[in-house]
Design a protein that fits this description.
The protein starts with 17 loop residues before the first helix and ends with a helix. It folds into 3 domains: 291 residues, Rossmann fold (3-Layer(aba) Sandwich), CATH 3.40.50; 176 residues, 3-Layer(aba) Sandwich (Rossmann fold), CATH 3.40.50; 119 residues, ANL, C-terminal domain (GMP Synthetase, Chain A, domain 3, 2-Layer Sandwich). By secondary structure, the protein is α/β, with parallel strands linked by helices. It is built from 20 helices and 30 strands. The longest helix has 17 residues. The structure holds 5'-O-[(S)-ethoxy(hydroxy)phosphoryl]adenosine. 5'-O-[(S)-ethoxy(hydroxy)phosphoryl]adenosine binds next to helix 11, strand 20 and strand 25.
């Protein structure tokens, strides 16, 4: 029996127009040649990409140094990410970009800012000097907890300029979540804002920072951007206004010449335990990966207006709102607010007004818009669009078709891109001018990326059977570690197939992403979703354990188990099974209290959609919660699995409601 059953069979195939194929950076012939190179010698392939797409202060001695699970790319080379994203667009043959829009920003209330490359360079240099003035040195971590305002991109680039790794915490996370991440990274400076706008209302951010850095904390300074003007409590000596610091700052700041393996950023992501993992990325390899993929996959041209709707607080925003796009000298659009304010057509209005040509979003958003009705996109002229992208979760073929028809007007290729926080950049994807697409398939690995479908034992699974997705050769954007936790790094990602013969000499050298997938007979990859205890809610990763620990930290909860169930809009919805403490009344008041509690502990995105109270949870004799069973119950499926190890079968009967 295959490890994972695959049920989908999709026959439709789409080809980009002749014109698109003719004009694409990477056409069919070139891609065929690059694939061959990448297959034969991935290191040489990536070295070529590194020479073509990145400027280096000094060259590497060795392309890759691989001692599983530790990789070093471009050993000994020196570069700087902010230099590649800014300085190199201001001089020589690129000087025409000086006054080109680097960022087109639109706030939710409708205010806009267009920031040119020259201006962005100036702001970044100034803020880099501000950071230096606050005592931030090469290697020091800086936490960024901000709404989607240009200052976030400025702060990131300023960090990279001086070699201070940033750790961005999504603005929707709670004070508790921020505290954990700031402490884990040992950040001494936090950059934030008084607040931002959501659904037409200002919301405050600074109070969460005050909470997060209260008591014992590594934080010495908090820099506050004035966005809403609603005010913020400023603690003397610790808290400083961005605009006041910038007033006196010099605009001269040479980029630090950093080692290719110098830490670039930490980004926390959920895993299978309660503690988020600080995913570490470094400089040269990451930059090569995101710059190359952004250019080839989005076919970025000088005149494009590119819009990725992801928040910069997630990896998609890091790699494909900021770094990959600016490194190509392209124009990146940033929008601050919710997609449906003031009306359900806000996004389509933005596309029409700015003439967006490339649009990259998530299946959850697409499904939401399908439900809102075709009339909203149809009320706008979307003819500027020439390419669409999807990321974050499997896109169901019907959502793909709607995206193709209603948004893309049947003329735009769709690139369904599979990757992760850990991979740094896109790994499996169509190349729009060279690869035919099938709705729901991420198609083929990017040239130079080696992916396979393996069985539990590490053997190759033959198409069309399902198995575990695996990456069998190092790639430049790969994570270099989990911040402060070498053991977890090895165990989570590099231990599944340590005895596999798949790569002979590289024992422990096969990467396990945690996704199930299968290949069809044509060699196309179909991603089937997570195979571990990580849920994908609206394209955001949330660990079941994190939500469970949040629930049991509530005073009225004795025990909790969390599972995902399929949801039409968000892909997966969180269902919690909760045993209240003796004498506590289960009911709507407790449901509300628990949902609020999870929002406070983690953030609103982690709130369970459904909370079911139960006197006991189904467990095996060894005391393990039977999640598979709970998943079936949550999904309303009849339980067919083996329940002979069940400690108390009546618990299941009650959870299902058999006895009511
Ligand atoms: C899922 C987001 C199917 C997958 C860039 C992965 C996808 C997790 C796709 C990473 C896709 C991402 N098709 N599934 N095109 N893209 N995923 O770290 O389960 O937030 O492991 O990175 O999202 O989520 P992360």
């Amino acid at each position: 029996m295959p490890d994972i059953e695959s049920l989908l069979s999709e026959k439709r195939v789409f080809e980009a127009s002749r014109e698109f194929r003719k004009n694409a950076h990477w056409g069919r012939k070139q891609v065929a040649a690059l694939r061959k190179e990448g297959e034969k010698n991935p290191v040489r392939f990536w070295e070529k990409m590194a020479r073509e797409h990145v400027d280096w202060f000094s060259k590497w001695k060795k392309g890759l140094d691989w001692k599983p699970p530790q990789a070093k790319w471009f050993v000994g080379a020196k570069t700087n990410v902010s230099y590649n994203c800014l300085d190199r667009h201001l001089t020589g043959s690129n000087a025409h970009r000086r006054n080109k829009a680097a960022i087109i920003w639109e706030g939710e209330p409708g205010d806009t800012r267009v920031i040119t490359y020259a201006e962005l360079h100036r702001e970044v240099c100034k803020f880099a000097n501000v950071l230096k003035g606050l005592g931030v040195k090469k290697g020091d971590r800086v936490a960024l907890y901000m709404p989607m305002v240009p200052e976030l991109a400025i702060a990131m680039l300023a960090c990279t300029r001086i070699g201070a790794p940033h750790s961005i915490v999504f603005g929707g996370f709670s004070a508790e979540a921020l505290r954990d991440r700031v402490e884990d990274a040992g950040a001494e400076v936090v950059v934030t804002a008084d607040g931002g706008y959501r659904r037409g209302e200002p919301f405050a951010l600074k109070p969460a920072v005050d909470d997060a850095v209260s008591g014992k904390s590594p934080v010495r300074h908090v820099v506050v951007v004035k966005r809403t003007g609603e005010g913020a409590t400023m603690r003397k000596g610790r808290d400083l206004w961005w605009h006041e610091l910038m007033e006196g700052a010099s605009a001269k700041c040479p980029p630090a010449k950093l080692d290719a393996e110098h830490p670039l950023f930490i980004l926390y992501t959920s895993g299978t335990t309660g503690k988020p993992k600080g995913i570490l990325h470094t400089t040269g390899g990451y930059l090569t990966h995101v710059t190359t993929t952004a250019k080839a996959i989005f076919d970025l041209k000088e005149e494009d207006t590119y819009w990725c709707t992801a928040d910069i607080g997630w990896i998609t925003g890091h790699s494909y709102v900021v770094y990959g796009i600016l490194a190509n000298g392209a124009t990146s659009l940033m929008y601050e607010g919710v997609p449906t304010h003031p009306g359900p057509d806000r996004w389509w209005d933005i596309i029409e007004r700015w003439g967006v040509t490339i649009f990259y979003t998530a299946p959850t958003a697409i499904r939401t818009f399908i439900r809102l009705g075709d009339e909203h996109p149809k009320a706008h002229d979307l003819s500027s669009l020439r390419l669409l992208g999807s990321v974050g979760e499997p896109i169901n073929p019907e959502a793909w078709m709607w995206y193709h028809r209603v948004i893309g007007g049947k003329r735009c290729p769709i690139v369904d891109t599979w990757w992760q926080t850990e991979t740094g950049g896109i790994m499996i994807t169509p190349l729009p001018g060279a690869v035919n697409t099938k709705p729901g398939s991420a198609t083929l690995p990017f040239p130079g990326v080696h992916a396979a479908i393996l069985s539990e034992e590490g053997d190759t699974v033959k198409p069309p059977d399902g198995g575990f997705l695996a990456v069998t050769h190092p790639w430049p954007g790969m994570l270099r570690g989990i911040w402060g936790d070498k053991k977890r790094f090895r165990e989570t990602y590099w231990s599944k197939w340590k005895n596999s013969t798949h790569r002979g000499k590289d024992r422990g050298g096969v990467y396990f992403p945690g996704d199930g997938a299968h290949k069809d007979k044509g060699g196309y990859f179909w991603i089937m979703g997570r195979v571990d205890d990580v849920m994908n809610i609206s394209g955001h990763r949330i660990g079941t354990m994190e939500v469970e620990s949040a629930l049991v930290s509530h005073k009225d909860v004795a025990e909790a188990a969390v599972v995902g169930r399929p949801d039409e809009i968000t892909g997966t919805a969180i269902v919690a099974f909760v045993t209240p403490k003796g004498g506590k009344q289960a009911g709507t008041a407790l449901t509300k209290a628990l949902r609020d509690h999870v929002a406070k502990e983690i953030g609103p995105i982690a709130k369970p959609k459904d909370i079911r109270f139960t006197e006991a949870l189904p467990k095996t004799r060894s005391g393990k919660i039977m999640r598979r069973l709970l998943r079936d119950i949550a999904a309303g499926k009849e339980t067919v699995g083996d329940t002979t190890t069940l400690e108390d079968y009546s618990v299941v009967a009650r959870l299902r409601g058999d006895e009511e």
